[in-house]
Amino acid sequence: MKKLTVFLLTLAIALSLTACGGTSGSTNQTDMEYVKEKGTLVVGITNFAPMDYKGTSGEWIGFDADMAGAFAKSLGVEVKFVEIDWDNKVLELDGKTIDCVWNGMTLTPEVTNSMECSNAYCNNAQVVIVPSNMFDKYQTVDDLTDLAFAAEAGSAGEAALNELELNVTPVKTQSDALMEVAAGTSDAAVIDSLMAAAMVGKGTSYSDLTYTVALKNEEYGVGFRKGSDLADALNDFIAASYADGSMLKCAESYGVQATLIEQ
C-alpha cells in the first residue's frame, strides 16, 4: 500500500465546534444518555479504505472504524457500523437510524450547519484520478475541461467539480467512481487523497490508474445530531488520544504517516 502523509491536527489549532448539550428526540434525554441507555453507538459509514472497510473476516476495520470502536468503549457501549447512502447522511442522523457519521467526512459549511461536528482531526485533499497513460496530459486544473468525471453524490469531490463547472456524473460511492474510470465509462474521477493512496497505483486494486491534480485541501471531522453532547465527549477523547499516542499508533497501523502540526 502507498503511504500518504496525513497531518493530524493538534487540538489547539483545530476548529472548535462546541456542542450545545442538546436533546435527543422530543424528551429531555441527551444523546449521551440515549446512546448509553441502548448500549450501542451506531456509526454511519461507507466503504472507504483506509478509513472504513471490511477485513478478511468481514468485520469493519480502518483508521476511523478503530477510533470509533475505541470511543464507544470509552462510553461503555458497543459500536455498530451501518453502511449509508452518503447523500442521505443528515436524514439518517435526524431519523436516529445512526448516531454519528464517522467516515472521513469533510467539514464543509453544509455539514457544519446541519450537524454538531467534532473538532477537525485530519487533513485531506480531493484528487483527480485518471488512467496512468494519461498522467502527463492532466497536470493542472486548466487541463481538465474536456474530461467527463465521476464522483460520489453529496461528496466534497462532487462539490469541487461543480464549483469548477466541470462535467460530473454523481455515483453512489467513491469506489463506484473508480470503477467508472477503470471501465472507461468516465474519463476521470475525484476522490479523497486517503482513498487514492490506498487503492490507486502500483500494487493496488487499480494499478492502471493514478492521481494527478489536487483540487482542494480540507479537514475531516465527525458529525452528530445538531445539539448533541457527544461532540464535546469526542473532542475530549481526541485530546486524550493525542496525548497518549494511541491515535498516531492507529494511523500508522493503516499505512498512514501521522505528524502533529506544531504552530
From TrEMBL:
Domain Solute-binding protein family 3/N-terminal: 40-258
Family annotation (Gene3D superfamilies): Periplasmic binding protein-like II
Pfam families documented for this protein: SBP_bac_3 (PF00497)
Alphabetic keyword roster: Signal
Superkingdom of origin: Bacteria
Signal peptide region: 1-19
Protein name: Transporter substrate-binding domain-containing protein
PROSITE patterns reported for this sequence: PROKAR_LIPOPROTEIN (PS51257)
Listed InterPro entries: Solute-binding_3/MltF_N
